[in-house]
Amino acid sequence: MSRPVAESHHPWLEWIKQVHAVARWGLTYAKDPFDLERYEVLLKLSVAMMADFAQLDTTRIENLFANEVGYLTPKVDVRGVVFEEGKLLMVQEKWDGRWTIPGGWADIGLSPAEVAAKEVQEEAGLIVKPVKMLAMLDKKFYPHPASPYHIYKVFMRCEIVSGEISTGLESQGVGFFSPDQLPELSSHRVTHEQITMLFQHYHDPHRPTDFD
Fold first, then answer.
1. pLDDT (tens digit per residue) in 55-72
2. The whole model's pTM is what?
3. Do 53 and 153 reside in the same domain of the chain?
4. Which of 8, 139, 191, 204 could bond to 151 as cystine, CB 3.0-4.6 Å?
5. Containing domain of residue 133, as a range?
């Protein structure tokens, strides 16, 4: 499939994240003390570069990466996609007051389907059954704001089992929206291009899973 061009894609940010990952891989597997020392220097350089790029204090970047140990892999963001009468379920985030599809980071011990169902229930009040993975996308190819992490986004189509829409701890609004009446999007979490793709799946249930 053709890949979209991310308007907010920053090559330097991608390079810094790769340097950081190489440093962590080296510190995980290297045995020679001189190699370990070199990888430690590389790690500090990646933190300094990230701090300079993001214009943040070095300590804040160090804390951000404090739990990033071992062999680094992409983080996984799972979204539960629910349609009703041609409209898409969306929640208004308390964090920025903007709207997105219910979801969040994948939890250890839960499958992507279980995460999608949990997030929809917690953020929108509905009991749902995941039925199909619509897309697995690499966030770097879409116009999201820059992020220090490499992130995969999983969109799971879910069917309503029971319940009524209601807000949760992280949401301050819930509703169903048609593609021509979308609210202001939380661009850290979802883009117009991705929502267009999801509506294409709605109108063509046999459309194969999209992936990057």
1. 778 787 777 665 566 677
2. 0.75
3. no
4. 139
5. 75-211
